[in-house]
Amino acid sequence: MALISLTVTNVYGKNKHMPCFAHTLNLVASQPFDNKDGLDEANNLLTAVKDITTYLKQNTNAADSLKKAHQTKPLGLIQSVCTRWNSIFYQLERFVELSEIIAPILLKYPKAPTMLTAQQLEFIKDLINILRPLEVITKGISGENYVTASKIIPIVSCLTETYNTMENSTYIGAKTRTLIVNGLKKRFGMVEQVHLFSCCDHFRS
């Protein structure tokens, strides 16, 4: 993918290369959880959720207990993957949804990871609310049957306004939102100066 992008840039010029918008949004969404440049508190919460998810998937008895506990609503835990768009959002959302079922199951197994506290779950709920606008936009623009280039400038503007006016219930949420805002500025701050995007937006209007 990187080689193709470089080739397009070299052959047609920098202003003719349009990076995948949905992929770039996913980079913004995953930034707070990055081991190097992210937020330690957010990354630690995700790691804790990953550890519990892995345990409940790999321990046969625990996995069976989870299935039996919600037979009327058979939902499995989701493990986030860096190459899958919005997977962090979906993992956190599903974990919170099943948290009341997961907690008593973990208590049955002495070697199981420790369940998250009520406060940590509140932090995660705040993170979910922060990631949701990016998930909604990514899902909306991922269709292959229509051109989305004309929507990029207004979408970026809308996202920026959404995050600038968003209120958070936790300090981790506030820090995460700041990273999201900075990520949008870093990756899309010059979007109006990309000729193709500006032209598409002009003809659409």
UniProtKB/TrEMBL annotation:
GO terms for molecular function: zinc ion binding. It comes from the Eukaryota. Its main location: nucleus. InterPro entries: ZnF_BED_domain_contain. Keywords: Metal-binding, Nucleus, Zinc, Zinc-finger. GO terms for cellular component: nucleus. It is found in: Nucleus. This is (apollo) hypothetical protein. It comes from Parnassius apollo. The lineage of its organism: Eukaryota, Metazoa, Ecdysozoa, Arthropoda, Hexapoda.
